[in-house]
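[step 3/7] fold_predict: job queued, chain A
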Amino acid sequence: MLLRFLHTRYPRLKRAATHFSILTMFRLSIFRQLVVPFVLLVSALVGMSTWNGFNSGKRSADALSSNVLKNVLLGTENATREWLTSGQALVDNAANVLTKETVAIDDIRALESYLFSLVTSARRGSYVYIGFADGRYVGVSHNEDGSITALVQAAGESVRNAYAVNRPGDRSRPLAIRTGAYDARTRLWFTLASKVGKPVWTPVYSSASQRIPEISYAAPLRDATGTVVAVVSTDVTLSYLSNFLSRQSVPAGGISYLTDQAGFLLASSRNGVQIISQNNDRIRAVDADDPLIRASARALGLGEKPISAASDAHNIELASSASPPFRVASSRLDSGTVEYNWVMTVAADENEFVVYAKENLLRSAALGGLSVLGAIILASWFAQRLVGDIKRLKGVAERIGAGDLSPTDHFRRDDELGQLSQSIDTMRAQLAQSKEAVESYAHELEVRVASRTRELTQRNADLHYEVAARARAQS
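[step 4/7] structure written:
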């Protein structure tokens, strides 16, 4: 109705639309009409296939990033639990032995001998020590290189004396004093265990001898009256976790790191990342000197929102950023103790996660380009053959129209064009026969006309002779 109204009201619009339709219809040659739709169809199919492949690759990259995180998380969680439990077991065993007075608590030599046997039977890096309420201190460390160090401080002394020992009580190889003035009674592990009155994990703090974060597990020792006379403890340095993270399969250029509930860094897989500042202050992840840690921590809001409950320990939070392009995944780490709800984070350049998808996209685009090029060549070849035969038919029709009915070589095809060629050739033959018949009939007419003309001429001559004879007779 609308079109009829427009055509009635605006006849020029109708003529323009008709003219446009005609132009559109005849603007493309048969060659283009055959080739262009075929090429466009192939291009559309290739484009959709390539795009679908890229999206599938990106989904695979998302799944891969989650799997990478889960693997790193599971390994780190197991290592952390084992690492914390081993230190806790050492202190619990020592506290149990000393509480039962199996070893005399006032005999420093006997205590050193017991701690020596305790740490040498444990893993390297184990360190157990005892601080007394009167200021005494004794500890034995099984170092990572396999050596054994004993630290002893008598009541009233301001520093600890360190010795490299091969057996308990060995004082032949004194070491440089590891710290300045030291009083065990002022340390966090001593004050917290004395205040709580039961075994406890301390918060993360900076070690007295090195600027590295560590935690301690401490158990108070009481006398018969219930007074705390000493605290047995172990230090667990977080550098162990950094070394463990550095050995995990993190994407190239990526990083994994551990933070506490407040967002402070605890460990990092990348060497050189500052965990403790020059002023011996802890560093938040959002203020880290590593740009990837800083950007990913801000994307996740580490330290700005509470950590999920234990039931959500393995829920993975994914985030990404376009500037700089990176992908990050994070999950709460079940450290095996109620005191620690830490967050494990893995971050990597976006390209590291979707590199395979992009490579697949490039391969698909290249194959698609070759497919489109092959489609153009194939369609052009078929169309050229078709158009060439049509042009030959056009030439034959023009010759027939000009009156040339001589036989021509007609091409053999099994399709409609072949049938059309045969029909045109049959028509040409029929026209030639008709022309020959017409010419024969015309010649016959000419002969008959000539004969009749001669006959009439003879009769006319005879008539004139007869008339002349009669005239002479009359005369």
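[step 5/7] annotate
The chain has a mean pLDDT of 76.
The chain has nine helices and 14 strands.
exit 0
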